[in-house]
Amino acid sequence: MIRQRTALAAAAGLASMLLLAACGSSSDNASSTSPGNATSVATTGAAPATSAPADSGDSGSGDMATTTMLMARTMKGMGSVVTDDKGMTLYRSDMDQATPSMSMCTGTCAKTWMPVMAQDSVQTMGVEKSLLGSVDRSDGMKQLTLGGWPLYRYMGDTKAGQMNGQGKDKMWFAVTPAGEKAA
Description:
Strand content: 15-25%
Shape: globular
Number of helices: 2
Distance between the termini: 56 Å
Number of domains: 1
C-alpha cells in the first residue's frame, strides 16, 4: 500500500512538472499568410523537449518550433541545407504533400517533429523568399512551407548543425534551399 502511494505521488509530481514546463514555454499564434509571401515564426529559445506529455489523441501540434530567419548552410557531406535562426536543421517529410501543401504530421508525430509555425515575416539568407508560404494545419495553426513542403525541427537535434533526423524512418530529410530533400 505504501509503495503504491509512493509510486502515485511520484507520477503525480512528474505530471505536474511536465504541465508546468508546458505552460511556461512561450508560443505565438500564427497569422494568415499566403504562399510566396514571407512568413515569420517567433523563437521560444528553448532546447527541444526530451520528454513530452502523453498524446491526448487530438490532432494538435504538440511542441512548436519557431524562427525569424531561414538560412542556407553548407553541411559537411550534405551540401546546402536550411537552418533556422538558431542554426537548427529544418526537415521535410515524404508523408506530406507539396502541391497542394499538406501536413500529415499531427499528434505524437508533431511532438517528435515540431512544426515550424508561420506568422508575419521571415527573413531569408541564401533561401529564395518566393518559395516561402504556409499551410493550414488540422489544429488551426499555420505552418511554414518551403517549395510547398511543410517544415519541421527534429527534437533529436539538440545543438546547431546537427542532422540526427536525416533519413529517419526513410521519410524525413533535411530540406535544401530549393525545398528539395538533402542527399
